[in-house]
Write a structure and sequence with these properties.
about 450 residues, 3-stranded mixed sheet, binds zinc ion, 4-stranded antiparallel sheet, 7 strands, mainly alpha
């Protein structure tokens, strides 16, 4: 009963907060209608928050000693819901500027290569190192450094962050990886041979610790590294190694964070490369640099046990199978890396992955020519980003191209919202979308269907 004044205050504040958040979402919806699906999901969170406040008020009104303790879980749920909307998503949405819109389009392009057909929206936020929030895997927030607005450096890391949404959405991925870990250590236990009781129990303890080391978070990180390398190719491997070499960290350290040791991560990235990419000069150069870094650090017993190369190889194999199962439309980057003068050419049809792999090759093999080359590459990336963002804006497609039912009006040209870019649907079935001289497969055509985000 002593909690009643606290509960009354929480209910009153919760109500004020929900109303304010609703108003904020209304404003965001007007200013950024392309985030309509996300705003709907957040409004749904507020509906649940409202229901929790009603429950609290019932408990307060009853003021019964047996009911009051049940209010605390309700308070915690309310805090989670208002925090998700007001602390996690609201600042990310409100901070969307030109850089964020650009990176959002880049992420859509990466998601297309990964075959993430279920992705509905992305919020990009350029204010910190790479990270992702996957509360709604279909609508993740991806954080990235501000420099992404003007430079390609570290950009392959975006694929890793998208992969967190994939891992969070499909729990079977984690289950398959965990099963591999269990099987590996079960086999290891069997190979003990004849030992004294004391040695056997010490060995058992070590194995149990190594087995437990591979928890969900660390398996997720390894999966994301493998995913990023498979989809983005050598550019991700090179970028990953380069980023790790810039920091002074022991590559074999097991403690420290929810991430696996760097050496195990670099190995899994390398194994995830197409065979013909592993011999590429830029990959060899970075592999050699990484080896030199590893050579000055000692490999401890715990690392050898927890990150045995046969386990890492097996986890890469299973992750690749899981990637194919959960994203059957993904495209592994397999283009041979360019050489000679073709390396510096920027095709007007070049994909995001092609550009990033050119960037990696030029940056590390021809560093003095990089700064002259990068602006043209960024220009092409901006085209891709605009195209991807607009292709996802199904309000434009459905409202403009279709006259109802399955009847397609086209091929046609129209002015999209920006009034700057002309688009043309060549064939509604395959959904080719053209902006200026750029053409690519359209993400999703909702034939004759108006988007719910238009309605509310
Ligand atoms: Zn991660």
């Amino acid at each position: 009963m002593q909690r009643l004044p606290f509960l009354t205050a929480v209910a009153a504040d919760g109500q004020a907060q929900v109303e304010w958040l609703r108003d904020q979402l209304r404003q965001i919806h007007v200013a950024m209608p392309e985030h309509g699906a996300l705003v709907s999901a957040l409004n749904h969170c507020l509906d649940i928050a409202r229901a929790r406040i009603d429950s609290l008020e019932l408990i307060i009104a009853a003021a019964h000693p047996e009911l009051v303790p049940r209010a605390m879980p309700v308070v915690h749920q309310l805090e989670y819901l208002t925090g998700t909307v007001g602390v996690t998503f609201l600042p990310a949405l409100r901070g969307e500027g030109d850089g964020e819109r650009f990176v959002r389009g880049v992420l859509f392009a990466a998601a297309r290569a990964a075959g993430m057909t279920w992705l509905r929206d992305i919020v990009a936020k350029l204010d910190r190192p790479h990270a992702a929030i996957v509360t709604f895997p279909e609508m993740p927030i991806v954080y990235a450094p501000p420099r992404h607005q003007v430079a390609l450096a570290d950009m392959p890391g975006l694929y890793h962050e998208l992969a967190h949404a994939v891992f969070a959405r499909d729990q079977a991925i984690g289950a398959a990886l965990r099963a591999s870990v269990r099987a590996h250590f079960a086999e290891h236990r069997r190979r003990g041979g004849t030992l004294t009781a004391e040695k056997r129990s010490a060995r058992e303890r070590d194995i149990a610790r190594a087995d437990a080391y591979w928890d969900d978070e660390r398996l997720a990180e390894l999966f994301c590294d493998i995913f990023a390398t498979a989809i983005c190719g050598p550019a991700h491997y090179v970028s990953f190694v380069e980023l790790r070499l810039r920091h002074n960290r022991d590559p074999y350290a097991l403690e420290s964070s929810e991430h696996p040791p760097l050496s195990a991560r670099v190995s899994s990235c390398f194994q995830a490369l197409a065979i013909h990419h592993r011999k590429e000069p830029v990959v060899r150069a970075m592999a050699d640099a990484w080896k030199a870094h590893g050579d000055v650090h000692a490999i401890g017993h715990d690392y050898r046990l927890a990150c045995d190369s046969s386990l890492i190889d097996e986890l890469v194999r299973v992750a690749r199978i899981e990637l194919s199962r959960t994203l059957p439309d993904h495209v592994m980057f397999s283009e041979p890396l360019r050489t000679d003068s073709a390396l510096f050419e920027i095709d007007d049809q070049a994909s995001l992955e092609t550009i990033l792999n050119q960037a990696a090759t030029i940056q590390f093999l021809y560093p003095r020519q990089y700064s002259a080359w990068e602006p043209g590459a960024l220009e092409r990336l901006r085209e891709i980003a605009t195209l991807e963002s607009n292709a996802r804006d199904t309000r434009l497609l459905s409202a403009t191209f279709y006259s109802g039912g399955q009847n397609v009006v086209g091929p046609v040209t129209f002015e999209p919202r920006t009034d700057r870019i002309r688009r043309r649907i060549d064939s509604p079935d395959c959904g080719r979308l053209r902006i200026g001289k750029v053409s690519c497969a359209c993400w999703r055509l909702e034939i004759g269907q108006s988007n719910e985000s238009l309605a509310n």
